[in-house]
Write a structure and sequence with these properties.
alpha/beta; Rossmann fold; about 50% helix; about 10% strand
Length: about 350
Amino acid sequence: MVTTDTGTAFAGLLGQDKAKKLIRRALASDRMPHAFLFRGPEGVGKQLFAREMAAAVNCRNRDGGRPCGACPSCRKFRSGSHPDFMVVSPDKGAIKIEQVRRMGLALSYPPYESQTRVVLIEDVHGMRAEAANCLLKTLEEPPPDNLLILTADSAREILPTIASRCQLVPFYCLSQHETVEVLLGCDAGLDPDAAQLAARLAEGSPGRARLLLQTEMIAVMRKVTAVLSDPSLHLDRDVGTLLQAAETMADLKENLPSLLGLLRLWLRDKLMLACGLPERSGWREEGKRGAGPETANDWSLARFFDTLEAITVAERQLARNCNRNLVCEVLLFKLSATSNA
């Protein structure tokens, strides 16, 4: 839906030096582009940065590229009551044409009290085709005194015609140290060891790391990898164990694709160990049953590729809205069959 925002973050972002430089240059220029495209990996600060830029655009005492946080405009941003800041967020996973039309109608009126109205359009990679074409018309003939900030995942496709009508601001993954610093800054009571593990698994995405910490994903991951790495696992005897693990996976619901991404990291670390290279994620399997732990060298190259293909098939099935429980059950039975081959 199209809404006024519920708040804004004025804290500076870690990393993203190139984005900061581009935005500072734009804010200092007499000719601000009518639209920006913030594009980069998921969870690296694009939307947080967009909100800070929105506050800076109409800040009366801006310090370089940073809003002051104290002027009337900044106070309204902080309270979530600024009349000239709008957010278009995905509705059930996608931005729909009705949302874009309502936004276009709002843009046809002048800003209420500021020099520039700022509209943040989140996750444009999830736009439906008709909504994207409707947005394209706005970008081709932008109303005056309006600034659009679009955010998109770099791993997802967007219409080239939309990208070509925006000034691109690239975002990148953070370092592990920066990710840990973000996590500890958001939660002072967070265990540093948990922050380190989440940062390793998230691969430079603080947003993904926070998701790992806020859900049971790490615990589920430990259970699944313990089952798959158990050398005593027998398909005929341990059907119940596999079904329980599949049910635990399916309970993650919308976070299940992220768990499959973690399984890819786990598989990559096994491959690196098998090649005599150090693993990178810091993942440790726990709770294995049986006489002893399975080593990475027990895995053949064919097993690695079969496991990777099984995860890819599961991701495609989830994208087609197949039953989560069935997808997880089929995946674990395939992986277990591979491990017993």
